[in-house]
Automatic annotation (TrEMBL):
Gene3D superfamilies: 3.30.465.10, 3.40.462.20, Uridine Diphospho-n-acetylenolpyruvylglucosamine Reductase, domain 2. It holds the Pfam family BBE. Belongs to the oxygen-dependent FAD-linked oxidoreductase family. It is found in: Secreted, Cell wall. This is Berberine bridge enzyme-like 18. Keywords: Cell wall, Disulfide bond, FAD, Flavoprotein, Glycoprotein, Nucleotide-binding, Oxidoreductase, Secreted, Signal. It comes from Herrania umbratica.
Amino acid sequence: MRSCYFSMFPILFLVLLSLSWAILAQSHHKFLHCLSSFHSEDSSSISKVIYTPYNSSYSFILESSIRNLRFSEPDTPKPLVIVTPLHTSHIQITIYCSRKHELQIRIRSGGHDYEGLSYTSEVSFVIIDLVNFRAIDVDVENKAAWVQSGATLGELYYGIAERSRTLTFPAGVCHTVGVGGYFSGGGYGLLFRKYGLAVDNIIDAQFIDTNGRILNRKSMGEDLFWAIRGGGGGSFGIVLAWKVKLVHVPTTVTVFTVSKTLEQNATKLVHLWQYVAPKLPHDTFSAISFRKVNSSQDRQRTILASFQSLYLGGVDELIPLMQERFPELGLRKEDCTEMSWIESILYFGQIQNGTMDILLDRSYKTTFASPSFKRKSDYVKEPIPETAFTGIWSKLYDVDAKFVRISFVAYGGKMDEIPETATPFPHRAGNLYKIIYNVGWEEEDNIKSQKYLSWIRNFYSYMSSFVSKHPREAYVNYRDLDIGRNNKGKTSFVQASIWGHKYFKKNFDRLVHVKIMIDPTNFFKHEQSIPPFFS
Ligand SMILES: Cc1cc2nc3c(=O)[nH]c(=O)nc-3n(C[C@H](O)[C@H](O)[C@H](O)COP(=O)(O)OP(=O)(O)OC[C@H]3O[C@@H](n4cnc5c(N)ncnc54)[C@H](O)[C@@H]3O)c2cc1C
Ligand SMILES: *[C@@H]1O[C@H](CO)[C@@H](O)[C@H](O)[C@H]1NC(C)=O
Ligand SMILES: *[C@@H]1O[C@H](CO)[C@@H](O)[C@H](O)[C@H]1NC(C)=O
Ligand SMILES: *[C@@H]1O[C@H](CO)[C@@H](O)[C@H](O)[C@H]1NC(C)=O
Ligand SMILES: *[C@@H]1O[C@H](CO)[C@@H](O)[C@H](O)[C@H]1NC(C)=O
């Protein structure tokens, strides 16, 4: 019997395999048929925005906004269909047909998800790519704007700057990031110590649920409106557009970058920064980034710590402020540059010689972007002892990837004043700064990739005693599938509650309640979406 069973096995396996292919092809076919049953001859016809692997531009559309080539390999699962809706009805039809034929939907706005969750899936799936949903409507008089999810942060900045040089929106530096994902997970940037996160400045939204209903703040209710402002993308439904409050910026801002090597007392300065930066006035953004370099003097390896700041005012106010708060840094007038707010976005994006038009370039690759990368985040509540930095530097020396950066971004300011429960984003008062770990590489060589992934995981575990604990907090927009990873591949509530509490702390429970209310059958889901159950 036993040998018979074994000899039967490969045949059985093949039969099952071809059967599942047949079912797949069939559901694929039925899905397309379902979409085309809504076919109309007018300009709103959905057939103009459906791409299958047989359409010649399928690969171009798929790859157009992939930012992490780790998820663009030949063996990366690809969508059966990509839909790039022009009208809300196209989205409603796609949701209807995906539900009917049990295909998963992945929603993509800017495609910057660190783990590729907007364009890959382990099960048969369809991408709704919001690239055509990017209208921006600015109302200068009422200091508000509607922005559709498929717009980039750059398009939003540009749209506002065209109408006013002293109004803007508090968002991130990298201008190719999509509004849809960025707003869904919180969204920090140069102005967050002054005005809070992007989600702290959202006043209405247009949302589409599993039944294709279009809801706004009033009709969705305050629980769902709370959840979509920071609970992470892809869990509740599709946000089509957001109404945001615009904020004031002065006509002149000041920026500086001061870099110090270990020989120039970088360790002492970094240690001091932890006490100084979180208490700087709200008008200041302050960060440090670390990398390994060869000293320009003796070519010996060292660590370069770059202190970067934006100040909402002129250099004549900034110098005395830094003299008083951080004299050890020795900031001089010649280290500083005065510019407009919009120019400062290019400055921090390391865009040299660029004009404002670059903000409209959706495919712009920054000089510091790597084709493949892995990032992680941490929050720090107590200053790291000066002696511990030696260990951090030696970890940095340990890796030879093309791009390795550790950054500290100072919290405090307005972030301390907003309660933890105001939005799902819980990392507020009590945090001195956030750490970003980033390793990037060009090689497609799998062994090298594994080496870099091990390096960053090892670094992360080394840092555990210096960062937040119980839970060790993490930023949901720095999506990290290492957290609470389940080796069986299925999401159990136990797993979900591990990453859930790291990303959202106690807000996780309220997010689960909202999920049960709006999507009890768990139609909108991915590897780290909010589960519709408690155990
Ligand atoms: C180079 C770079 C720089 C970054 N800089 C910053 C920064 O300064 N500050 C910061 O806070 N973050 C930053 N991030 C992280 C960024 O905020 C997140 O990766 C964000 O989720 C990206 O949004 P997206 O629309 O581009 O991504 P996508 O990959 O399109 O979406 C991300 C997630 O949201 C879901 N989603 C997308 N659109 C919608 C929608 N309309 N409705 C519902 N769900 C949706 C997706 O399904 C996916 O799960 C950066 C990322 C990169 C790669
Ligand atoms: C993709 O191909 C199908 C079948 O030939 C066609 O109906 C559809 O219009 C094509 N899509 C686009 C966007 O051209
Ligand atoms: C570094 O610190 C020491 C001791 O405080 C000081 O003597 C020295 O001048 C500093 N070096 C630099 C380059 O600032
Ligand atoms: C530093 O020097 C070493 C040895 O000369 C070289 O291999 C390495 O690429 C250099 N690193 C940088 C960051 O320039
Ligand atoms: C910027 O312009 C200067 C002078 O025109 C040029 O030398 C430099 O290479 C340019 N830099 C970039 C990144 O294009």
